[in-house]
Amino acid sequence: MPEVPLEHRGDADEMLKAIGQRWETIRVAAPTLLADESFMLSSLGLAWETLDFAAAELKDNRVFMLSAVKRDWRTLFSTPGLCLRSDREAMLAAVSQSWLALELAEENLRADRELVSAAVCVDWWALEYAAPEFWSDREIILDAVRQDWHALYYAADALLEDPEVILEGLKQSTEAYEYAAPILKERPDILQTFATSRCNDKCWALDELGKNLFTFAEARVCKFEVAKAQRSDSSSRPASRMCSNSPVDYVWRCDTPSCIGPSSASSWRPLSDKQLSNHTDSVAVLGG
Questions:
Q1: Beta bridge pairs of residue 284
Q2: Could you tell me if 174 and 191 are in contact, meaning their C-beta atoms sit under 8 angstroms apart?
Q3: What is the DSSP code (8-state) at residue 86?
Q4: What is the mean pLDDT of each run of 10 residues along the chain (288 residues)?
Q5: Is 285 helix (H, G, I), strand (E, B) or coil?
Q6: Is 270 exposed, middle or buried (0-12, 13-18, 19+ CB in 10 A)?
Q7: Of 262, 184, 183, which is closest to residue 168 (Cα–Cα)?
Q8: Do 116 and 126 contact (CB within 8 A), yes or no?
């Protein structure tokens, strides 16, 4: 702990400088500083742990405590902060900083829609601590899914039948298709979004031969109209270059419907010129 000369222990600037180096230095601060609202709020800006050393009259002052939470939500972990976990205004200020604060809220506040909505806006993971009734709240779930498709895990069954909810997830990952209710899995807009979703890592262009549909991860994919495939003169393009939706430069096919993804890359081969010329009007593009 930094040495603070006795004559500096009542000096706000000197003490804040010392606290900035090591927060435990507040232990030697003069009682007058520990009872000073401005000094204590400044110290909280350096380390939330200093709240435990505030004078009793400040800890009993709701206005000061609200200001402390607004300065740093982690003051809820301190001994004086425990009483604020049931205070709606304090918790609203806390969850607006971090979704983790929702875990500290009293049960009745976890069922407060405004509080939960504010927490979800900060991070969709707040659904973990929200009352289960909000897993059926369309607006809250949509906000969460727009952040991260994994939020579909918390969505109620009724919302998994909502096309907009599923489409928001599919825009980010084809894996969101697994959450879609069976009634949605045949919709053209769902299938099309699935087929074009996030070609960031691997993207395979499958030719649709006749009327048969290939199987990908046990999900049926409809034929999807895209710009006509144009075969490049070079057949040595890396896999990453195959991810072109307009036009498709290099079309690959799989000998068996069970052949999927990068792990089966050795089973994929380029279409012959004859196949390509016969089947360039309709291809399915799948995002890995």
A1: 206
A2: no
A3: G
A4: 77 92 93 95 94 93 94 92 93 96 95 97 96 97 96 96 94 90 90 67 35 32 29 33 30 33 36 43 36
A5: strand
A6: middle
A7: 184
A8: yes
- Residue 200 burial by CB count (10 A; 0-12/13-18/19+): exposed, middle or buried? exposed
- Other C-beta atoms closer than 10 Å to the C-beta of 144 total 29
- β-pair partners for 99: none
User: Which residue in 266, 174, 246, 256 sits closest to 205, CA to CA?
Assistant: 246
Q: How far is CA 92 from CA 44, 59, 145, 264, 281, in A?
A: 19, 19, 22, 50, 55
Smallest CA-to-CA distance from 129 within 177, 85, 84 is with 85
What global pTM score does this model have?
0.65
Nearest of 197, 158, 155, 157 to residue 177 by alpha carbon: 197
Q: What's the one-letter identity of residue 39? A: F
**Could you report how far apart the first and last alpha carbons of the chain are, in Å?**
54
Q: Is 220 left (phi over 0), alpha (psi -120 to 50) or beta?
A: beta
Q: CA-CA distance, 80 to 77, in Å (whole number)?
A: 8
CA dist 11 and 9 (Å) reads 6
CA distances from 104 to 19, 59, 73, 143, 152 (A): 27, 19, 10, 22, 24
User: Tokens standing for 275?
Assistant: 């196949």
Question: Are the CB atoms for 261 and 175 separated by under 8 Å?
Answer: no
